[in-house]
Design goal:
The protein is an all-alpha fold. The chain has six helices and no strands. α2 crosses α3 and α3 crosses α6.
Length: 84
């Protein structure tokens, strides 16, 4: 079991809402699931810049970012590549 961070992730989500990032991603023709993954990827790049493999590990083990978004699926680096 891991202790997960949520504070900085929550602040990033608030900034995304203010900047209407979700609408921008949807305008780029991303579906709802991929929009959520893209926002988690952007959150990770802001808070823990690293490769997609390390980003996957960080999102799964250290971050509670997936709790802030609707998608509850496991994040793989392949889904992160697709969102990027």
């Amino acid at each position: 079991m891991y202790i997960k961070e949520i504070g900085s992730e929550w602040l990033v989500k608030q900034a995304f809402e203010k900047l209407e990032i979700e609408d921008i991603l949807k305008a780029a023709k991303l579906d709802d699931n991929l929009t959520e993954i893209a926002q988690m990827l952007l959150t990770a790049k802001l808070l823990h810049p690293s490769s997609e493999l390390e980003t996957q590990r960080w999102l799964c083990e250290n971050s509670a970012a997936n709790e802030l978004y609707k998608t509850q699926e496991n994040i793989s680096r392949y889904k992160l590549y697709k969102a990027a």
